[in-house]
Amino acid sequence: MEMVTVIVPMYNEERYILDCLNAILSQDYQGSMEVLVIDGGSTDASRQIVHRVMSESRIPIRLLCNPKRIVPTSLNMGIRAAQGDIVVRVDAHSVIEKDYVRKCVEYLQSSGADNVGGLMRPIHNQTRIGQSIALAMSCPFGVGTGKFHYSEREEFVDTVYLGAYRKSTLLALGGYDETFLRNQDYELNYRIRRAGGKILLTPAIKSQYYTRSSLRKLWSQYLQYGFWKVQMLRKHPRSVRGRQLVPPVFVLILLFNGALSAISSLAAWVFVLVVASYLSLSLAFSFSIAARKGWRYLPILPVIFACLHLSWGLGFLYSLAQLTFQWLVRR
Questions:
Q1: How many CA atoms lie within 13 A of 197 on its CB side?
Q2: pLDDT per residue as tens digits for the range 2-47
């Protein structure tokens, strides 16, 4: 059986790294396996926790140090240091199922795909906010067409959560692009597809993920996602999908017509119509979720949907404005 290297980037993950590593060490894969934890200079107890697990583990664990801190650099360090033929990426915030590695290897060997991944199920935090965020992120209205959030069908897709690759594939592509602080997975998967490769999503591969625990943290996360999407489009213009432009167009319509509504009745009507349409959709999905999961979630779900969409759209527009300004200055 092929040897597998599991790569885990880490920075200040003392709340999550133990659960993450325990899940990795509980895998039912019968082949050889090693774990590489790449630390970005944690200032909490993360490293001590890893050292404690290392001393008790039968599976080899190595702790590497990444002075640059950023995730893509950690991933590339892990790829270069990997002894396995297959590289499985795992986030410190994630908890993989017991058969995760075995299923990744099986699907890599049988499907002809260059990257395989599965479903990402949010872990419901103890607070109602955390639980509501998890529910919103399992809904197509909340996260768009990121099928790894909710799909139950095996299919080839644009990208997957985490992923498992052959090391030779990653080296041939030059690894992750270290200029992408976010969206590095999508960027890598785009290059795989551009080179003629395939990305397979299968619900047989499952993992759970600790969502953000507050609206402030969720807003910051999706603001960065929107910001870095523009950098992706700047480097790979052909990677754009129409659905990715919906949040920034929505926010732009709100800003433009909201600003003009004081002097234009048409702008005011457009603003009201767009807001009313959005609220109708948001409430419809919120009612649907609350009817299945509990009515206590109904008041907060529309707020979370708005947080996801507005932050992503604003991050995109801010990044686009920044690039436009830089281009004008250079002229």
A1: 22
A2: 999 999 999 999 999 999 999 999 999 999 999 999 999 999 999 9
